[in-house]
Amino acid sequence: MTRTATPEADTPPEPHFVLTLSCQDRHGIVHAVTGYLLEQDCTITQSQQYGDPDTGLFFLRMAFGCEDADRDVTALRAAFAPVATALDMTWRLVDGRDRPRVLIMVSRYGHCLNDLLFRQSIGALQMDVPAIVSNHVDFAGLAGTAGIPFHHVPVTAATKSAAEAAVLDLVAEYRIDLVVLARYMQVLSDDFCRRLPGRIINIHHSLLPSFKGANPYRQAFAHGVKLVGATAHYVTAELDEGPIIEQDVARVDHAYDTAQLATAGRDVECQVLARAVRWHTESRILLNGRRTVVFRG
Predict the structure, then answer these.
(1) What is the Cα–Cα distance from 179 to 181, expressed in whole angstroms?
(2) What does the alpha-carbon distance between residue 190 and residue 167 come to, in Å, rounded to a whole number?
(3) What is the pTM of this model?
(4) pLDDT score at 201
(5) What is the pLDDT of residue 3?
(6) Residue 152: per-residue pLDDT
């Protein structure tokens, strides 16, 4: 991940770190974490926690700053490691000033791509987009306007393996932290998904499992649906079965034609995907088996 200084600031901002963790729930977890922060001369700025009664797991997200403006995240990780080992934690500690590097993949519907780029440009999403990948050339111009390299990687049944290898090469070349499928209409292979666990977010209409395949809104119109919506989830080898991050719906009625249903659905897709990406880049999502714990900001 990269870090971009704010041009209006004469000095670097105070370090702001985020610790996320999960482990078996037991007495003393919060005490151990706060004790560690006290030893490191750190001040808690935000704390959220959840104990899952079904799995017996405890989840925590804690944001904090340090008195020492030059404090390095690597040193903080090294100091926390013994605490995490003692309590058998799955954990992650990041510098909140870092900007995750996001690769956006798109096909022929550009509403989510355009929305993400706009939100990133106004600072609503803390991320950098070093590249855009598509199996079509429709949005090469949009990428050019944004000053982002555009990679056309066509996909056919015969070239699918080579195309995915090319995308993985781009992930390595651009040091990508997160891949976002912004209406990328290709099914990723099991191997591709397993190479990037918890690092691929997809968006699709939430009419599933009904109205599968082509023209879902035409099918929805024929059945007289009254709600359209969207689901954002992490991608796994099981098609559209990954842990759900966010969902939302919009109410529609008999007066909506197929085009209006699609427009309403796409508006919801943009909002749901943007929230999912923001929560991921701000370290607000923790995996809980097939589910997620989301500490909303």
Answers:
(1) 7
(2) 14
(3) 0.91
(4) 98
(5) 60
(6) 98
Residues recognised as catalytic: 240
Q: Please name each of the domains of the chain with its CATH number.
A: 2-95 (3.30.70.260), 100-294 (3.40.50.170)
Q: What is the pLDDT of residue 187?
A: 93
Q: Show the low-confidence residues of the chain (pLDDT under 50).
A: 5-13
* Identity of the residue numbered 159: T
Q: For residue 108, which amino acid is it?
A: R
pLDDT tens for residues 187-242?
A: 999 999 999 999 999 999 876 557 776 778 888 888 898 999 999 999 998 777 89
CA angle 189, 151, 274 (to 5 degrees): 70
**Is the Cα torsion angle 180, 103, 284, 291 positive or negative in sign?**
positive
Tokens representing 70? 């030059």
Residue 51 pLDDT? 97
Q: Print burial letters for 158-191: b (CB count within 10 Å at least 16), e (below 16).
A: eeeeebbebbbebbeebebbbbbbbbbebebeee
